[in-house]
Amino acid sequence: MTAPFLKGPSDPTVQPVPASVVDQVDAADTTLSNPKRAVISLGSNLGNRLETLQGAIDALEDTPGVRIKGVSPVYETEPWGVEPGSQPSYFNAIVVLKTTLPPSSLLERAHAVEEAFHRVRDERWGARTLDVDIVAYADLVSDDPQLTLPHPRAHERAFVLAPWHDLEPEAQLPGRGTVAELLGTLTRDGVTPREDLELQLPE
Ligand SMILES: Nc1ncnc2c1ncn2[C@@H]1O[C@H](COP(=O)(O)OP(=O)(O)OP(=O)(O)O)[C@@H](O)[C@H]1O
Ligand SMILES: Nc1nc2c(c(=O)[nH]1)N=C(CO)CN2
Question: Ranges for the 7,8-dihydro-6-hydroxymethylpterin-pyrophosphokinase domain (predicted)?
Answer without folding.
Answer: 124-135
